[in-house]
Task: structure prediction
Amino acid sequence: MSGDQLSPAARAKKFGAAEGDGIVRCDACPVLCRIRPGRSGACARYANEAGQLVRTDPVVLMARTIDANGKLVAFAGSAWDGAPLDAARTFVTGIGAGTTYPDYKPAPFIVSAEHAGVDTVTVVTEGIFSYCGVKVKIDTDRNLGPETAPVRVNGEQVGHVTTAEYGSQMLSIGGVRHLTGGSKKEGTVTCDTLLKLCSGAPVAMRIDGGHALIVEAGKAPIVDGNEEVRMRVGCGSAAVGMFARQWLGLLDEVIVLDDHITGVLTEHQSGRVLAMPPAGIRVRGRRSTPGRYFKVAEPGLGWGGTDITDPLSIIQRIDAKVAWPGLRLLLTSTTGEDALYCVLDASLQPVPAPMPAAVAAVIQRIGENCEPALCSVVFMAGAGGSLRAGVTENPILLTRSVASGATRVTMGGAPVTVWPGGGITIMVDVTRMPKQAFGFVPTPAIVAPIEFTLARSLYQRLGGHVADIVSIDDVIGTLSPQARIDGWQDDNPWPFVPGKPEPA
Ligand code: SF4
Result:
């Protein structure tokens, strides 16, 4: 493969066939669009330019530069200054590279480069992922809806509520069943939702039996119109343990309300170790272990993810043999956003009172220890036939090489997590990828960049398409005038660090 074959028209032509009236048939995916001159295909990724099929988006090259201290860094402000690119510091991403269909075609770019004295190959393509979705982590204490409840966009089910994690509610959005197994509208809305989430756009969702959400990668979640601010410092039990020593001497009892594990200080091991006397205040719910209570209320948008808006309602009874008038009681949520200070009166009823400054300082400390509430979006997909056959004629060897760590996988240069077990099932944080990295085809499926980097000698042994290898110098010389040049994201590892040795 020579540098001449890298021009956008030449690359696209690899996938197109001319028909009558200047129409070009695009065969870069199973839709097989017939595209008239001056028009683009159904996905807008390919167009007919004067009878030639062209890829409409530029290829994205990522490059690093050297700072005043000799360290490799991204361009200042990630803006390329137009200087010639250095082959040793340039990475060809799959963004804008084009796809391979049907499966046996070699990937659009198979790029050779030398790094640290090792001849490497990076196989670059845009994968068409029918088996894909996103996992969304929403940092919130509030109950967004029942586990397994459908998540809807424009009335269509696009996913479901999955487990609650520590301080977060997880959603599973997309997946092959919603893309292909329901109505055409369900598939289209699911694909559009995935594309927006992966591209960092906000998406309005509604959970059956739950609440309305706006989800945007890297931004605070919005629940029923209210922006979430803090991610909890811990569960109720953890909060009691973390701050017990700071409350000692200021309070006689602390109850940290939490939908999952409510903590009661004097019963809790931390209160006992600090020799706090029992306060005789029994909270509702099921006692799990000393000072730790489950199911104190129904889930909701109130204190600590419960439906409680009057915190004193959590008190089931006060033992007159144990409690005493003047007992100082604090009730707080796990973020410190809700807090109430009370003193027991002569009839042992809790009476709200002004919060002492020292107690308020600990509440403020809880808030300081909360992290900002965010939505995290992780794209998850399986690399299928076209992808693997585009890399090597014997795809199982690639699968084994990825599993062993000898072949490094990136998406738009961002590192991926490869699931153990069979196949190549990967996950990537979409905020670590370049802008406009994702696309779609109306089958429906998501299009995403993927790159496989490995030693050239290994590539040959895997049965790689060695006749299609092109040098990085040719790629830069031919493509950089039309390419989009992005600065490398400094927090992403450089993919050319040698992968693990091959297993014997
Ligand atoms: S949807 Fe896009 S990739 Fe698929 S055939 Fe049409 S133009 Fe080509």
